[in-house]
Amino acid sequence: SQQGEEDPQALSIQEGENATMNCSYKTSINNLQWYRQNSGRGLVHLILIRSNEREKHSGRLRVTLDTSKKSSSLLITASRAADTASYFCATLTGANNLFFGTGTRLTVIP
Amino acid sequence: DAGVTQSPTHLIKTRGQQVTLRCSPKSGHDTVSWYQQALGQGPQFIFQYYEEEERQRGNFPDRFSGHQFPNYSSELNVNALLLGDSALYLCASTGSNEKLFFGSGTQLSVL
User: Fold this and answer.
1) CA atoms within 13 A of residue B65's CA, in its CB half-sphere
2) CA within 20 to 30 Å of A56's CA: A11, A31, B18, B106, which one?
3) Mind telling me how many Å the CA of A43 is from chain B's nearest CA?
């Protein structure tokens, strides 16, 4: 079963707008990672945030983590048409395996 | 530096048949994980191999088995295929950090 759940399931925005995706998970984690997938192919790692971190930035990406609420959010600023993809959160547990959420399908309209 | 490579890209099988999927990890990586991704879903963890042994296993039946070779490449075998086994099978490798590097996947269709 999935460890995490993303919200919303689908998001459609205009180019230049910001996109926010949320992830909730169930158990204690070592870290939380966000991945991107284009057209059902391989996933690409975007950013990793450790359980003792609250916020992390990478280029146009900003990730927050609230371990008390077991939730994370991914913000993509100034979106581009090329950002159109599915985005997944994944949690690393003590068993050292990554468990993925259900994904958010982002469409950026030019 | 080659990334993670998977073969074949696409595969069509019939129910009851057996299939073998192959994966070569990124150079320098010694750990290989396999995931199953059904259409519209997130990847589901099947198992992970390290030092030629299955280290962790997800909630998949024994019909799913694997192997890791001394050069760290890996195979995923599925026996007695069911229609529900139709999915994208993803291989991912990792080294000393916790990031996964994914291959492009094998799209398996069971008819």
Assistant:
1) 6
2) A11
3) 6
Q: Which of A107, A69, A70, A67 is nearest to A87 (CA)?
A: A107
* Separation of alpha carbons B66 and B43, rounded Å: 17
Task: Give me the amino acid identity at B11.
Answer: L
Interface check B7 vs A, CB under 8 A: no
Alpha-carbon dihedral angle through residues B1, B25, B110, A97, given to the nearest 10 degrees: -130
Region label for A46, one of left (φ > 0), alpha (ψ between -120 and 50) or beta (otherwise) = alpha
A15 Cα distance to chain centroid: 19
Whether A99 and chain B come into contact, CB under 8 Å, resolves to yes
Pull the structure tokens for residue B10.
């696409």
Q: Are B21 and B9 in contact (CB under 8 A)?
A: no
